[in-house]
Amino acid sequence: MSIKPVVSAIEPKAVIEGAGVHLKRALGLNNESTAFDPFLLLDHFKSNNPQDYIAGFPWHPHRGIETITYMLSGSVTHGDSMGNSGIIESGDVQWMTAGSGIIHQEMPQDNGTAQLNGFQLWANLSASNKMMAPHYRDVKSTQIPSIELETGTLTKIISGNIDGIHGPVIGIVTDPVYLDISMQPHMEYIFPIKKSYTLCTYVFEGSGQFGSTLAPVSEEMLLLFGEGDRLRVHTQDNPVRFLLLSGKPIGEPVAWYGPIVMNTQKELDTAFREYENGTFIKHK
């Protein structure tokens, strides 16, 4: 057994996306696709001010990736070119495999009662799956199992398997582990991780100590870990809540511009040309 060390710590940067949504980007600022493979982007949107988010993300395309939206609070209405529509609310997950191409919109709602708080993660697809038929999964909070690994450590399993308990998102292409973990003060826990898998964590509440050297980590910090097969997390006087993201690297070239991620510039050019001439959608 070897504890994974922290090899990189990234502080999110403020960016504006969509039609004017203010958010913090922890991953994807410099297309760090090699180090975090298969993960491409992680955005954290959090605000009590509707002016920061109400303009939303009007209709836009995706190809070659999976987008995973996890809501902590607030609500977002969505619709797509496959005919799906609905509302993502507190605790819900929207898992969309864009594949050959999908056009969708995501519009945050101002209900006057709760802040908008959540995440969007992008996972890459291998070359053999980039042009597959799109898929969509709308996962309600009641479908996400919560388990107490030991006293004071609560884990929500969005994707992956812990002690034989599976998250609701299974049969997906990239098959990552996606956990929401809360630890009370004065706790220590060691999580098993597949040795060949990329591992990163994002602390979004409290503070803790991570990795083989128990590096101190404060709120809103993304960590990338090195070789090993265990993650060690320790808390002192404060609780901590963080996302655990782990997945098998794809190890292929990445050509990325905006909402489309392919393997070559030629494929990117084709995607945008098809979007402009109305032939982007291959499957409905």
Query: Biggest sheet: strands side by side, in what order?
Result: 1-22-19-24-17-14-13
CATH topology, what is it called?
Answer: Jelly Rolls
Number of helices: 2
Structural class: mainly beta
Describe the structure.
This protein has a single domain (6-277), classed as Jelly Rolls (Sandwich), CATH 2.60.120. It is 6% helix and 50% strand. It is built from two helices and 26 strands. It has helices spanning 33-36, 265-277; strands spanning 6-10, 13-17, 21-27, 39-47, 57-62, 65-73, 76-80, 85-88, 93-97, 102-108, 116-124, 135-139, 146-150, 153-159, 161-162, 165-166, 177-183, 188-192, 198-206, 208-210, 215-217, 221-225, 230-234, 240-247, 255-257, 260-262. A seven-stranded antiparallel sheet has the order 1-22-19-24-17-14-13, with no helix packed on it. Strands 2-3-4-11-6-9-12 form a seven-stranded antiparallel sheet, with no helix packed on it. A hairpin with a 2-residue loop joins strand 25 (255-257) and strand 26. It is globular and about 60 Å long.
Topology (SSEs and partners):
Elements: E1 6-10, E2 13-17, E3 21-27, H1 33-36, E4 39-47, E5 57-62, E6 65-73, E7 76-80, E8 85-88, E9 93-97, E10 102-108, E11 116-124, E12 135-139, E13 146-150, E14 153-159, E15 161-162, E16 165-166, E17 177-183, E18 188-192, E19 198-206, E20 208-210, E21 215-217, E22 221-225, E23 230-234, E24 240-247, E25 255-257, E26 260-262, H2 265-277
Antiparallel strand pairs: 1-22, 2-3, 3-4, 4-11, 5-10, 6-9, 6-11, 7-8, 7-10, 9-12, 13-14, 14-17, 15-16, 17-24, 18-23, 19-22, 19-24, 20-21, 20-23, 25-26
